[in-house]
Amino acid sequence: MKKRYLLICSLPLVGCSVTPTKLGVNGEALNDCPITPNCFRSKNNESQDTTPILFKGSRAAAREKIVSIVNSLPRTTIVEERDNYIRVEFRSQLIGFVDDVEFLFSQKPGDGTQIDFRSASRLGVSDLGVNKARMKNIKALFAQ
């Protein structure tokens, strides 16, 4: 009984302290998702949900719009920001588990910007669709 209680009480601490792995840019793309279903990422030529965000404007304007959207969402912290890359930590409301969200901005010919994204849970195997729902919401907010 004591072991179970200790495990339940320590979950919030573990969820907040695990170091993210395999984040960042690999060549000119975000790293792939692991084989676990707790990650959601944009890909070219896939379903509508996974297509990158396309913006008719400069990379700087696209970054500014993403930063504005992220800052409007609850429990977010921008932890890394460069001219072509942003990494954000999203914390769950109940326990404070951290999901890492990344955006990669690529200037396209003709004053267009492609925004690739990746949203991944730090812990567990399943995220119950949270990362996919988050990115669909961000895409919808960006389209407004």
In short:
A hairpin with a 3-residue loop joins strand 5 and strand 6. It contains 3 helices and 8 strands; from the N terminus they run H-E-E-E-E-H-E-E-E-E-H.
Structural class by secondary-structure content: alpha+beta
- Assign an overall shape: globular
Q: Looking at CATH, which topology would you report?
A: TATA-Binding Protein
Q: How many strands appear in the DSSP assignment? A: 8
Measured as a percent range, the helix fraction is: 25-40%
- Give the tally of structural domains: 1
> Which value, in Å, is the CA radius of gyration?
16 Å
Describe the main β-sheet briefly: 6 strands, antiparallel
Could you name the ranges where pLDDT drops below 50 across 5 or more consecutive residues? 5-15
Order of helices and strands: HEEEEHEEEEH
Mean pLDDT reading: 86
Helix segment count?
A: 3
CATH architecture: 2-Layer Sandwich
Fourth-level CATH superfamily: Kinase associated domain 1, KA1
InterPro entries: DUF1499
Protein name: DUF1499 domain-containing protein
Organism: Alteromonas stellipolaris
Pfam families: DUF1499
